[in-house]
Amino acid sequence: MPSLRLPTVGRGLESFEMSPPSPFPARANGDFPRIVYAAAHVVADPLAGADPLAHQPVDWDRTLAFRHRLWDLGFRIAEAMDTAQRGMGLDWAGAQELIARSLKEAKARPGADLACGAGTDHLNPLAARSLDDVVAAYEEQVGFVEKHGGRVVMMASRALARIARGPDDYAFVYDRILSQAREPVILHWLGEMFDAELRGYWGASDFEAAMSGVLDLIARHEARIDGIKISLLDADKEIAMRRRLPAGVRMYSGDDFNYAELIAGDGVRHSHGLLGIFDPIAPAAAAALIRLGAGDRAGYEAILASTVPLSRKIFEAPTQYYKAGVVFLAWLNGFQDHFILLGAMQSARAIQHYGEVFRLADRAGLIENPELACRRMKALLATYGVEG
Known about the structure:
Distance between the termini: 15 Å
Number of helices: 14
Strand order of the largest sheet: 3-4-5-6-7-8-9-10
Radius of gyration: 20 Å
């Protein structure tokens, strides 16, 4: 197998011999026992000639092809979410095109499933003057998704987080939007580790108080809520809330650190999944979920055990830059021919970070073509003055 030298902490280099190609199939060969959404990334077009720090177009062919890969593996797709750099390179105009194109692809493919993020990111938080402004922004985006025949993931709002004065303001906005929804929506509780502007969301800094307000909201609109995704990177908090959800409302884990145990469940309750990490680990996650569906929990845990260190590395603080690791692995595996993110976000992580992601992905069996990955990693290292 190919080998190379990878950077280590402290300016060092160490030899690394790669493992055999990924053992996981590229298509699902069984059913999943959980509803699982993969939040998919977008592929930038680095040859468009645009300012990468201002506006960089999307490579639509590669972006949509990757969604078909996820459908092949049995996943549903959560579209235009933070993994797609929503609000961090992908603006509302770009999100609209992404949503429309992806829904068209899904409708043309039997069995493809898609839910789309709707938020308020076209409303500058500093320009929001009232709760009605936030409601109008949500109505525009929810309306766009529904007009194109999509189902909604109701994303957290930076504008609401800025102007809300307490839980009642959140209740006012969410009551208005949920009362109009055509189909049950998925609520999205994104923690401040992913977006610092969402600190104190739901009108409380204390988790128990915030959770109580969300549960009251869910109780008022149970028929209009499919489930809630919480991304707090705290298994105990997710479990605590999961226990208190109505029977007809699903918990979608957004915990990219503890997803394996949360989705497996405790024998009484379990979480479903809506995760960014399922983009880069999709083949392993699919194989594991099929094992779980066959009653082989040990096999499920064995496969996912090696993906957890990789996920923790990709999502390490500053967590919002995890998209760089996701796109890095897509490039290594040949799903795109460059390693450029919207807004040049690839520069947000150090070369040591990428070196460790490379090691962990290899050990997790997620490198599909070791020779290609090795060549590409060496090319990246060379741009840092490192002879791999």
